[in-house]
Amino acid sequence: MYLLDGESREIGVRGESLRIVASHRAVRVLPLRRVQRIVCGDKTRWDGGALCACLARGIPVTWVDSRGAAAGNAFPSQMVTGPIHDALLLYVQLPSWRRRYRNWLRSRRMNVLAHWAASVGPGLRVPVRLFNDLKRQFVYQGRLADHFVPEARAWCASVTVQRLLAEGVDIQYWGFDGTSMDLADDIAGLFWADLNLHCGTLAEQVETGAASLLFFENWAQRNQNRLLQHLGDLKRHLRTELGSWH
């Protein structure tokens, strides 16, 4: 559920449903069983009971600031448990974890670029100069120009947090040296790059607002496997770096 049109809202709870009151006092009642995740802006006012009801049912909430960037998340901490979470806790205690993690992220950016280049269409090829330019800028420098609305970064973050929680993984981990692994931000960045490259100039024809949200949701549903592939490769990386874990 997206609440990003700039309208002020109050969100409460009534039984097994969220009660959403707009600024003009129109009321919408939405059963919690129909909600998977919520993305809301800075004009959304939450009742504590409504937020607790979402967290109790495993529904993550992402807040977006006035610039359209993800400002933060609320998620049920009891869902963060399992072998991947335990492996990550061990991984960030390795003295060289930051170097290893940077190398892994670079390899995933290369995977994103190669996946895009292999899917441009039958009989078509990405020009060598363009591929090499993108490799230098994106794979090695982490920079990629926007082809879609900038707000899509926050939408990718919301989808990523939901997927991480389903895997029992936290959004952030802290290393022994006091530095953070911003896992949700990094995985969301890969997912956003998948979106950005595969949209190309098509996305520039999509208007902002509801049309861009619909475009994104359709794309995200069709490409959920890309998130699973990034996480699957993370699991393989952990096994390699830590040895066998269960």
From TrEMBL:
InterPro entries: CRISPR-assoc_Cas1, CRISPR-assoc_Cas1_N. Keywords: Antiviral defense, Endonuclease, Hydrolase, Magnesium, Metal-binding, Nuclease. GO terms for biological process: defense response to virus; maintenance of CRISPR repeat elements. One of its GO terms (molecular function) is hydrolase activity. It holds the Pfam family Cas_Cas1. Signal peptide: none annotated. Gene3D superfamilies: CRISPR-associated endonuclease Cas1, N-terminal domain (3.100.10.20). This is Uncharacterized protein. It comes from Thioalkalivibrio nitratireducens (strain DSM 14787 / UNIQEM 213 / ALEN2).
